[in-house]
Amino acid sequence: MRNEDTIQRLYQAFASLDADTMASCYAPDARFDDEAFSLRGAREVGGMWKMLCEATRAKGADVWKLSWRDVQAEGSTGRAHWDAHYRFSATGRIVDNSIDSEFRFTPEGLIAEQRDRFDFWTWSRQALGTPGLLLGWTPMLRNKVRAGAAKNLATYLANQP
User: Fold this and answer.
1) pTM above 0.70?
2) What is the C-alpha separation between 98 and 112, in angstroms, rounded?
């Protein structure tokens, strides 16, 4: 149950935009990968959640909604599905994103690895509008989004104590 509890705690904290609690769910050497980020270590992973939660509070708290389901954990692995309704801070556009997460845990019940998967083209059409519609299926746009996300996170982390 400990690993399932960690998943529940992660999403409960995300629903309330509590990035500190989210960060506490990860091991110091945690890895996180999704369509926008490839992160290594608690500073990067926790920093990403803090950056996203702050952006949502600043520009999208009025529409923010997170739900999750199908939480399962067995042995050192787990999975869950979550849906996020939010305003993409870079464009102000409303996004409904459907994400499947896979986890690997430490013996202490912390997240060692998390891999989130979602349909990038669907996301890019909502978040970016016409450019996403026309180019969201291309590696070029995906790489541009990843580079922008990495740059934004590096800037954010550089300004943290």
Assistant:
1) yes
2) 22
User: Is the Cα torsion angle 93, 98, 104, 108 positive or negative in sign?
Assistant: positive
What was the pLDDT predicted at 161? Answer: 79
DSSP result, 112-154:
EEEEEE--HHHHHHHHHSHHHHHHTTSHHHHHHHHHHHHHHHH
Question: Is the per-residue pLDDT at 146 higher than 90?
Answer: yes
Half-sphere CA count of 82, side-chain side, radius 13 A: 23
The alpha-helical segments, DSSP class H, found in 16-129 are 19-23, 42-59, 120-128
| Mean pLDDT of the 15-21 span | 97
1 pLDDT above the threshold of 80: no
Q: Where are the domains of the chain?
A: 2-118
Mean pLDDT across 20-37? 97
- Domain 2-118 fold is Nuclear Transport Factor 2; Chain: A, (3.10.450)
Sheet with 65-74, strands from edge to edge, namely: 38-40, 26-33, 111-117, 94-105, 77-87, 65-74
